[in-house]
Design goal:
seven-stranded mixed β-sheet; alpha/beta; binds zinc ion; 289 residues; 7 helices; Metallo-beta-lactamase, Chain A
Length: 289
């Protein structure tokens, strides 16, 4: 496939958009109740080498089923990049069907605080130890490898056309933003991020001119003051970040488990008045960049 300048470069699909905890109540079905999981596919000549996933919240369960069915094309490797390890970002992994397939190679990556590979493996081993889950990580069946910052660039060296950068931002325990660029199109994922009283200028710089910015937006302006230190942003902050960074399109995500569909639809209308090219993330939503 040859792509021209105007063709989309990235295919992004949302499998989990809820923050903090999954919700399955009737009023939460239109936006979805699964926790963070974002699928990213590169639509260029280099595709079909790699499935890219950001975070393994409960949404990854459905993504796994689509990979097994072939709805998402099966590739040589599955690359899972973690923003951080809070429950809502890791708890889907034990239900990710490809992880039980012996011919599947999964690479789990985190640049989190320059942790060592064994520390990274330990995080996933502990949450699947037998007190918590019947199948241990080592018994899942697929080849699961762990990559820290240093090892990662050599692992991805075959994927030269992608520029992949990251930085730690403010969140309890820290979390990581990711920026992917290829063929002049860039997307940024910035979730579980608390700016503080003012927008974090380094976050704004990281999001500069993004074609697609996926930004934490858990709280309203009214909710934010009583949630200082909880590690999240408001709708207004996400929009201000997109405006200051010159982002072309904004997706608001990590919806609060107390915000039902009617609430989110109302907020989406309000947000569009200020930043027309923004949308609330919905499970199953696909965006071509
Ligand atoms: Zn979270
Ligand atoms: Zn978190």
């Amino acid at each position: 496939m040859t792509i021209s300048q105007n063709d989309p470069v990235w295919h992004v699909k949302f499998y989990g958009v809820r923050g903090s905890t999954p919700v399955c109540d009737p009023g939460f079905q239109r936006f979805g109740g699964n926790t963070t999981c974002i699928y990213v596919d590169l639509l260029t000549n280099d595709r079909s080498k790699l499935i890219g996933i950001i975070d393994a919240g409960t949404g990854i369960r459905k993504l796994g089923k689509e990979i097994m069915k072939g709805t998402i094309p099966k590739t040589d490797h599955i690359m899972l990049a973690m923003t951080h390890f809070h429950w809502d970002h890791i708890q889907g992994l034990p239900f990710f069907d490809p992880a039980y397939e012996p011919d599947t190679k999964i690479a789990i990556f985190s640049p989190h605080h320059q942790m060592q590979k064994d520390e990274l493996r330990g995080i996933f081993e502990r949450h699947m130890q037998e007190d918590y889950f019947p199948v241990q990580l080592s018994a899942m069946g697929s080849e699961i490898r762990f990559f820290t910052e240093e090892e990662y660039s050599s692992y991805l060296s075959f994927e030269r056309s992608i520029e992949f950068t990251h930085r730690m931002h403010n969140h309890p325990g820290g979390a990581c933003s990711y920026r992917l660029s290829a063929n002049g199109k860039s997307l940024v994922v910035c979730t579980d991020l608390e700016h503080g009283e003012e927008l974090d200028p380094e976050v704004v710089a990281f999001c500069k001119d993004a074609d697609l910015l996926i930004h934490d937006a858990q709280y309203t302006d009214e909710e934010l003051p009583s949630h200082r230190g909880w590690g999240h942003s408001s709708y207004s902050q996400a929009i201000a970040c997109a405006e200051q960074a010159g982002a072309k399109q904004l997706v608001l995500t990590h919806h609060d488990p107390n915000h039902d569909d009617d609430f989110l639809e109302h907020m989406e209308t309000q947000c569009k008045l200020r930043f027309p090219r923004c949308v609330m993330a919905r499970e199953g939503m696909e965006i071509m960049v």
